[in-house]
Amino acid sequence: MSRRWLGAVRGAIGFLTRLPAAHREGDWEAFRTTPTAFPIAGYVAGAIAALPLLAAAALSAPTVALGYLLAVYTVTGIHHLDGVADLGDALVVHGDAARRREVLKDTTTGVGAILAVSITVVGLALGGLGLAGLPVLAAVAIAIAAEVGTKLGMAAMACFGAASYEGMGRQFTSGAAPRSFVAPAIVALPAVALTWPHAAAAVALCGAIGGIALPWYWATRYVGGISGDIFGAANEIGRVAGVHAGVIAWTLS
């Protein structure tokens, strides 16, 4: 059992981040059937990506925000942005569900893709600017909670979602069941207390899940189910939503 868990975490880190993880045979299978590995990887990625925020007291806010943006994509890579791009093109295309699924799988980059990726990256940069204006420990906590919330949302997609066709999405949805969501939720629970007694971390985590719900709902309604591109897009959109929700919660308190 412990070997399977270690393999699942290695698989999650290998798939969700660019961090070096010694891959072994069976890691992917362990990861796709162990949704709990999603939030565990979120803690790791979130903590490392938040390191530039520790310099907020010494550097200007725009510089810290840029550092956070670069750290996020250094840690997580940019391959999930491909899902944002494909979703952007599918959002603007005219046609039925089959046509939208075709666009999701198409490698051509259209104006919808450019706009969607631009909004996502700018949104994260502005969220980083908001974090840079908060107390250092609060900013780090919100960044971590948003990342954990994003990965918890992806676990929810795997446990409760339905894939529209064969591919990466079905790899996850076929490997998990609704009852499998209990363990990821428990693992993610400590993240809500990172700003205790302030609720900003809890709001960031919930905001990230809410952000993931948007592409999930759209895919379910308009293309018949989720896919690997939707998982990738949800990962990016959830992070942006979580960071902004956490900053707003702290600012309004």
Automatic annotation (TrEMBL):
One of its GO terms (biological process) is cobalamin biosynthetic process. It holds the Pfam family CobS. It is found in: Cell membrane. One of its GO terms (molecular function) is adenosylcobinamide-GDP ribazoletransferase activity. GO terms for cellular component: plasma membrane. Coiled coil: none annotated. Belongs to the CobS family. NCBIfam families: cobS (TIGR00317). This is Adenosylcobinamide-GDP ribazoletransferase. It comes from Halosolutus amylolyticus. The gene is cobS.
